[in-house]
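User: Hey, quick favor. My workstation is busy. Could you predict this chain's structure for me?
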Amino acid sequence: MGTLIVDRKGASLKLQRKAITVHENGEYRTSIPLSHIDRIIICNNTQIGTNLLGAAAENGIAFTVIDSRNPQKSSQMYPVKRTDVQRRLNQYVLATAGTNAEQWSAILIRKKLQKQRRLLQNALKQRADKRKYLLTAIQRIADGEKSLKAAKTAETIRGIEGAAARAYFAGYGQLFAPALNFNGRNRRPPRDPVNAILSLSYTMAHKEAVIAIIKAGLDPMLGFYHTPEHSRESLACDLIELIRPDIDKWAWQQFKQKTLRADHFKTDAGGCFLGKAGREQYFPNWEIFARTLRKQLKRYSYIIVRMLQR
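Assistant: No problem, here it is.
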């Protein structure tokens, strides 16, 4: 099973029998059997036949429309998963039971901080010139890990996570070339190439988390660390916390290896975003990396399922 990524102006997708045909400006390009696809990602204006949407839903194919310029405006059609409703009822009980939710939150954030610390420790081996900044960040994150042991409330856990995040990005930001103008996390819109990639990648990963959660028979809206909120897939937000450092490491490697460069981006009043040449590099490389993320997200989702069965 694979991913079909469409990023061409004038592209159109049609359903013919049990296959998707791809056309560009009215000319036939290729045909792919539905059985070979488990997700479709649209990155540019594309005409899509309504019968194809129905076939995608019927065949369990996730359909994502991603706006690389404004990732928060992206949308998704999820594959339908019919499971025992008791699983979601148990999830609701756990999500609304303060003590259980806080225990999960502490475990989740501890895992995130461990990954952040290890990323910076590994980076230190390559960037001895940034030793002072990286060691300071590593120590502050380690302090946050220790503080979590005594954390009893959600507010305390969030405070620890926030302080560790500030320390982490102060160190992480030292890993990038000055020409990228990365001075910490910013978004909506991102103002530099690194933030543009982090925002886009977090959004892409969020869509993957929702798919994994639904396939596990869980409700993506019912989170534990991220409490239920209007229009927010809170459980997906929870799972993303666990893989953010993995995404951060991948993003750093893309710039370090010059797979992505400053000239792959465009900046205007709407922020910084990938240009066409950048998207041609980003999406194929993201798809390779995403295969590992999907395995992690599937594992985390089923850890929650087992937790609900106790």
